[in-house]
Amino acid sequence: MTQPKRKKDEKAELVKLIQSALPGNFVALLEHSIQSIIEAELSQELGAGYYERKEERTCYRNGYRERQDLATGLGPVSLRIPKLRKGSF
After folding, report:
1. How far apart are CA 33 and CA 72, in angstroms?
2. Cβ contact 67:81 at 8 Å
3. Residue-wise pLDDT tens digits, 3-48
């Protein structure tokens, strides 16, 4: 089963509805979700998670840098982008 395609106006109304309900909670949820995805991708790329000692590890974490607010439909989201000792992420 496929869902019917929504028009842009319907999407905009849905976003407005979500924003009017509890905008702070949705932005925090979105921020947490994106940050979790970034951390998972980094662990995958490094071959090890936090405090994991593996021979397959390719590099090490080296702090974070703050990213300017990411513009989303729900509002700006602040993210912390991981830094690596060698290379970039």
Report:
1. 13
2. yes
3. 545 555 667 776 766 666 665 577 777 888 888 888 888 888 888 8
Give the helix ranges, DSSP H, for the chain: 8-21, 23-46
Instruction: Assign 63 to helix, strand or coil.
Output: strand
Q: Which distant-in-sequence residues (6+ apart) come within 8 Å of 26 by Cβ?
A: 18, 19, 74
- The helix (H) or strand (E) run that includes residue 84 is strand 75-84
Alpha carbon distance 11, 74 (integer Å): 12
DSSP single-letter state for residue 17: H
Q: What's the rounded Cα separation, in Å, for the pair 52 and 42? A: 13
The amino acid that residue 71 corresponds to is A
Burial of 39 (0-12, 13-18, 19+ CB in 10 A): middle
pTM higher than the cut 0.85:
no
